[in-house]
Amino acid sequence: MSGNQGMQMLIPLVNKLQDAFASLSVPLNLDLPQIAVVGSQSAGKSSVLENFVGRDFLPRGSGIVTRRPLILQLIHGPTEYAEFLHLKNKHFTNFDDVRREIEAETDRVTGKNKGISNIPINLRVYSPQVLNLTLIDLPGLTKVPVGDQPHDIEQQIRSMILEFIEPENTLILAVTPANSDLANSDALKIAKEVDPTGIRTIGVVTKLDLMDAGTDAREVLENRVFPLRRGYVGVVNRSQRDIDGRKDIQAAMASERKFFLSHPAYRHMADRMGTGYLQATLNQQLTNHIRDTLPTLRNRLQTQMLSLEKDVEAFKSLRPDDPSYKTKALIHLVNNFSEKFVNAIDGHSGAISVDSLSGGAEINRIFHERFPLDLFEIQIDEKALRREIAYAIRNVQGIRGGLFTPDQAFDVIVRDRIGRLLSPTLACVDRVVTKLSGIVHSCLEQMSSYPRLADEVERAINSRIRESEVKTKDQLRSLTDYQLAYMNTNHEDFIGFNNADPQNANQSAKQKLGNQSPGRQRRAVNTVICSGWLALLNEKVLRGGSRYYWFVLTTESLTWYRNEEEREKKFVLPLEGLKQRADDTAFLRRPNFSLFHSDPKVNIYKEFKALDLAADNVNTRDNWKGALLRVGVFPEKSKQVQEEEAEDDLNQGNNPILKRQVETIRNLVQSYMKIVTKTQLDLVPKITMHLLIDDVKKYLKSDLLPILYALDANRLMEESPEEKRRKQDLVTMYNTMKEALNIIADVTTHTITTPVPPPITDDLFNSEGKGDGSSQRSATGPSRPSVGPSRGSPSISGSGNSPALQARVAPSVPPTSRPLNAGPPPPSVSVSPGDSYESNNNAGLKMFDPMANYSGNTTPTATNNGPVAGGARALASLF
């Protein structure tokens, strides 16, 4: 194919990619080359687009009319009609219906309250009156909310426009009305933010016929005021009176042509002004721009294809109607689910989280942190225990009183305490069940493509979990009944009545400790209970705020270090006499707690009576509170409890025998409950693991598949509509990319393009004077011969030798990048109206005039040797 035919395929190629990816459910960011139209409200953007098409088809009115981006694809064809991407295979020949459909589709997404959305509407227009071109019409920049619009509508529109014009592959068509100050142009201002060098910006000046008398935009159009590397093009749109009078667009374009030819400020550049010239320029520049971005686009397409190739090949090999395929897929999905569930419980999952606990780690935390904390919270109220014992002793002795400690009181108190363990035990199972259900739900994500199968699997497993939960709770209730059935006072860890006497308790404890070896004593003292990061909140100590330290809690002390290596010790705080207090009011939104001495006169750390600590979250704080309970650091009591304790002490103080009996029973109860609690902490996780968690694992391996086999496999393996569309979209995307790469390879091999215009420099703008017409050298190389008048236009005397014209860089004629001292440029390849120059070995270079064949309509006329048959057939095969 010739270079020009290869270039002509580029815009349709991008259109095909744009349509394909816009309708896909799979997100894809290819940054396709395109032209985005920006401008303030009522700047004339919509009128320019309608002039391109030659039809009135865009919504009009006051306020914000364009409320969704409109991707307008103009395609040169023999018949005139329009079609929307969301209404495939429906042709619109009445362009009033096109306008109504744009309004209806806009309201469908944004509502009728003038809201906006960044979801584009794709419209394709076929017509013999257009050149191949793709533009994105964006909402006009506004500053004041209208109707029910949000107060930040200006920022919303601005963000949407930036979203479309920020990509490097987007050309910006900045539309500015001539009757406003160019320095305050919203379009040029926002374009400069993302394109400071002006390499991607094309200027359009509208409403030239509405300027004040005696003023004109000549210097703007000659690229002198706000230079752009791609220059400016002036257009004249229909006025509101023309629109109300139903003036035909073809007649309006003829009036536009007459305006430029007759205006003294613009007639010397009339052949480079107007809608027809703008359309030809945009066609040329978009084509060249696409050609320049082909290497990057090709690399991105190849990368995306490689990522899709494996999935697409798998889809092609599937035969959904084959019963064996559905059976194999069912087995595969269930086995994968079972493996994922077991790995999540056992901790062998491939995707291991480093941010939080998950799966089996959360269940382990319930067993060994939350459950012990719940049990310790039941037993911390020592004074309440003494009060209960005192009442039990008195009630057992009745009216007679007694000198000896009744063992019935011990039995009553222990039974009551054992009964209280049942509630946190069952709560532990509830938490495990909740975590298991959460793990099941998370593992079912891989079955999301088959919603019926996922629902059935989740229903079956949750049903089994509930059955196992009932068995587990029954067994734990039986465990409580076992404890209540027989009080084993002969247990080796039970202190017995002799050692429970307050007078003998201290001496017995000392003897027991003395019989231990020194090493065993040190190990008991230095046993680590808990360690982790906490923040110190004492501002004076820390000189300006909290700081994190590594804390280590042992059975005798709380030590903090500079870091977890535990080399640089900061302080050792003995635990004797300490109490804890939780502060529900978060300091800097972090849960915190405090340690203080039971004697209010004692400073626990330097001059501070309390040490304020903060954790990262509530769970961490509760873990530390539970650990402190285990080493005997109990919470402080409320004033009411303290008053009740004082009253009980007063009552018991009047009866020393009762007080001694209470202490004896308390020691016995405490000793026995330690045995029971230890048993509970050991057996509850084991019973729960065996009857609940392991049972669910076995169910997944042996029972789940037979249950699913008994159901309708066709119904279970029915894909969701989303999955069907996803697979179809992936195949479509893959085929489109493959086709695009083939075209790109052909275009890259056979086409030649014009380079990007050089930067604007001050020496391009020589001051205008009355020279003798001699040629002036510009910064871009040798001066070019002046452009003659277009066909059918009057000759303008003297305009060809104007220094201003020689100095001006024509926006649509990008000069070649050549050194200043280079000789005459070599002849270029013969091109059509989409390119910039024609080659003439005898006459040298002359500027190609896109308007040479224009005579009142926008029908493009090719000036080259005609299309190559092979290229035309390749283009036709695509569309």
From TrEMBL:
Sequence ranges of Low complexity compositional bias: 781-803
Compositionally biased spans, kind Polar residues: 500-519
One BP term from GO: receptor internalization
Region (Disordered): 497-520, 751-845
Catalytic activity: GTP + H2O = GDP + phosphate + H(+)
UniProt-listed CDD domains: DLP_1, PH_dynamin
UniProt keyword annotations, A-Z: Endocytosis, GTP-binding, Hydrolase, Microtubule, Motor protein, Nucleotide-binding
All residue ranges annotated as the GED domain in the record: 662-752
Residue ranges of domain Dynamin-type G in the record: 29-295
Gene3D superfamilies per the UniProt record, alphabetical: Dynamin, middle domain (1.20.120.1240), P-loop containing nucleotide triphosphate hydrolases (3.40.50.300), Pleckstrin-homology domain (PH domain)/Phosphotyrosine-binding domain (PTB) (2.30.29.30)
Pfam families (alphabetical): Dynamin_M, Dynamin_N, GED
InterPro entries xref list: Dynamin (IPR022812), Dynamin_GTPase (IPR001401), Dynamin_GTPase_CS (IPR019762), Dynamin_N (IPR045063), Dynamin_stalk (IPR000375), G_DYNAMIN_dom (IPR030381), GED (IPR003130), GED_dom (IPR020850)
Enzyme class: hydrolase
Pro residues bias: start-end ranges: 812-828
Family: Belongs to the TRAFAC class dynamin-like GTPase superfamily. Dynamin/Fzo/YdjA family.
Record's protein name: dynamin GTPase
Species per Swiss-Prot/TrEMBL record: Hymenolepis diminuta
